[in-house]
Specification:
The chain is built from 9 helices and no strands. By secondary structure, the protein is mostly helical. The chain has 2 domains: 121 residues, no CATH class; 91 residues, no CATH class. The protein is elongated.
């Protein structure tokens, strides 16, 4: 490899607001909680995404080494992957578990990077997609946004409700984007009124009510998830989620 690998790649999103990770092991001392990933994401899938993010950062920083469909590209990617994986595992000597993943292929790399770009360089876009088939009911709010952008429907009824609630909030913001004369507090009050009206409709139809997100999250949806808001504008493609009925 022709240049040193980056130690950390911060996306523009990270500069606005980091993920809210929740360590899955309360007794880990001296370990960065961010290494454990956000709520609901399996540790091994988060470790995989961290390796892949650093690989993307390396090849982005070394444009002359853009990967193509040839043996030398596959070898460069393999060397990059193995070096990053070794470095990360070396930093985890105090952990009971380390993870080793086979290097991905060049086509897989390009597929992941395309997904990463489509989600605004959000690290959750690099989590293997079969993670989202996990029947979990408690996910970080970011998971709802990133899976909506990718048109992935979470299987658990409570998780579906979270996705639907997030989609409703983002849709409200998208429809309110031209109301520049309103104060943020007025936009949020309008959002709560809209949620209450929607929940009345859902109750009449025997559907689970939407969750009302806090003001801080709702106000920041355009900055944190512009791709999702753009998809909900009149010219965009609205993500499909099925309404969840009472069980």
């Amino acid at each position: 490899m022709h240049s040193s690998l980056p130690h950390k790649n911060h996306s523009d999103f990270d500069a606005i607001r980091p993920l809210r990770p929740v360590p899955k092991c309360a007794g880990v001392v001296g370990v960065d909680p961010a290494e454990w990933g956000p709520r609901g994401v399996d540790h091994q899938h988060w470790a995989y995404a961290l390796i892949l993010q650093d690989c993307i950062a390396y090849f982005d920083a070394n444009g002359k080494e853009e990967l193509s469909d040839d043996p030398s590209s596959a070898e460069r990617l393999r060397a990059c992957w193995n070096e990053i994986q070794t470095r990360k595992n070396s930093a985890r000597q105090q952990w009971a578990t380390r993870f080793y993943f086979r290097p991905i292929s060049v086509p897989e790399f390009h597929d992941y990077r395309k997904r990463y770009r489509a989600c605004g360089n959000h690290l959750l876009a690099l989590v293997p997609q079969h993670q989202w088939q996990k029947p979990a009911d408690d996910w970080d709010d970011h998971v709802f946004a990133i899976t909506l952008i990718q048109s992935i429907e979470l299987p658990h009824p409570k998780a579906k409700r979270g996705q639907q609630s997030f989609a409703f909030a983002a849709d409200y913001i998208a429809r309110s984007s031209n109301l520049k004369d309103l104060k943020p507090s007025e936009v949020y009050r309008g959002y709560k009124v809209a949620v209450a009206a929607e929940n009345q409709r859902r109750e009449e139809r025997g559907l689970l009510p939407l969750t009302t997100f806090d003001r801080r999250l709702v106000e920041r949806i355009p900055a944190w998830f512009p791709q999702l808001v753009a998809s909900l504008t009149p010219d965009g493609h609205k993500p499909a989620t099925q309404e969840t009925c009472h069980g």
